[in-house]
Amino acid sequence: MSIENISNNKAFGGWNKQYTHRSNTLNCDMRFAIFLPPQINTGTKVPALYWLSGLTCTDENFMQKSGAQRIAAELGIAIIAPDTSPRGDDVANDASYDLGQGAGFYVNASQAPWNRHFHMYDYIVNELPELIEQHFPISDQRAISGHSMGGHGALTIAMKNPKRYSSMSAFSPICNPINCPWGQKAFSAYLGADKDAWKEYDSCELMQSATKFIPALVDQGNDDQFLSEQLKPHLLAAAATDKSYPLQLNYHDGYDHSYYFIASFIEQHLRFHTKHFAANNH
Amino acid sequence: MSIENISNNKAFGGWNKQYTHRSNTLNCDMRFAIFLPPQINTGTKVPALYWLSGLTCTDENFMQKSGAQRIAAELGIAIIAPDTSPRGDDVANDASYDLGQGAGFYVNASQAPWNRHFHMYDYIVNELPELIEQHFPISDQRAISGHSMGGHGALTIAMKNPKRYSSMSAFSPICNPINCPWGQKAFSAYLGADKDAWKEYDSCELMQSATKFIPALVDQGNDDQFLSEQLKPHLLAAAATDKSYPLQLNYHDGYDHSYYFIASFIEQHLRFHTKHFAANNH
Question: Could you say which residues form the signal peptide (chains A, B) (predicted)?
Answer without folding.
Answer: none
